């Protein structure tokens, strides 16, 4: 039935998976209008806002979920991603740490997010260690598991970035050798 919040949520979820963000938002808003405490709809609205780079809106949705129910890893990790994408590394780190405390550090989003926080703070070795630990914690999965591939690729990117030498030429010479 179109007015049933769960049906509206499912329609919104499917629209989101088809990249119909406007349709998804409309369906999810209808679901919330029918049931103001529908946390799954609010979480997905927050994710859509995050994807659309409306970071403040996303945080408001995630905050609403936190007021309605006990904290959960899924929401805290999304709050961490939202803060990281918004450029607030300190808040991202706090949220990922809160999620890690709930889950025990087994969530790849949390571990990967923390690795990027450390990288952004200039702590390259800690970032590399976290990414290696992520890959190691998933060794029971296939080598082509998306999280394992991602962690190895990010580790290689960071290693390459750190190994690069930076050359600076200020062009502040007083005399030119070729007498131009």
Based on the model shown, name its key terms.
mainly alpha, 180 residues, 9 helices, single chain, globular
Question: What would your notes on this structure say?
Answer:
The chain has helices at 5-17, 21-34, 39-51, 55-68, 73-86, 89-103, 108-120, 124-137, 146-163. With 180 residues, the protein is mostly helical. Helix 5 runs antiparallel to helix 6, helix 6 runs antiparallel to helix 7 and helix 8 (124-137) packs antiparallel against helix 9.
What's the structural blueprint in terms of helices and strands?
Blueprint: H1 5-17, H2 21-34, H3 39-51, H4 55-68, H5 73-86, H6 89-103, H7 108-120, H8 124-137, H9 146-163
Helix pairs in contact: 1-2, 1-3, 2-3, 3-4, 3-5, 4-5, 5-6, 5-7, 6-7, 7-8, 8-9
The Rg value, from CA coordinates, equals 22 Å
Straight-line distance between termini = 81 Å
Poorly predicted runs: none
Number of helices: 9
Question: What general form does the structure show?
Answer: globular
| Element pattern in H and E | HHHHHHHHH
Structural class label? mainly alpha
Fraction in helix:
over 70%
Overall average pLDDT = 91
Total DSSP E strands: 0
Tell me the strand percentage band: under 5%
Largest sheet: none
Q: What's the short story on this structure?
A:
With 180 residues, this protein is mostly helical. It is 71% helix and 0% strand. The chain is globular.
């Amino acid at each position: 039935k179109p007015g049933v919040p769960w049906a509206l949520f499912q329609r919104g979820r499917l629209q989101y998976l088809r990249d119909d963000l406007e349709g998804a938002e409309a369906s999810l808003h209808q679901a919330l209008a029918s049931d103001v405490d529908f946390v799954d709809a609010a979480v997905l609205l927050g994710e859509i806002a995050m994807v659309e780079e409306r970071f403040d809106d996303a945080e408001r949705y995630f905050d609403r979920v936190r007021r309605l129910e006990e904290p959960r890893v899924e929401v805290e990790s999304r709050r961490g991603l939202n803060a990281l994408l918004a450029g607030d590394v300190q808040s991202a780190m706090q949220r990922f740490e809160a999620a890690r405390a709930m889950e025990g550090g087994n969530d790849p989003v949390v571990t990967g997010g923390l690795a990027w926080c450390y990288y952004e703070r200039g702590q390259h070795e800690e970032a590399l260690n976290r990414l290696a630990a992520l890959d190691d914690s998933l060794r029971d999965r296939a080598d082509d598991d998306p999280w394992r591939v991602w962690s190895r690729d990010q580790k290689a990117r960071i290693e390459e970035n750190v190994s690069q030498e930076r050359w600076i030429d200020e062009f502040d010479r007083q005399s030119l050798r070729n007498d131009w």
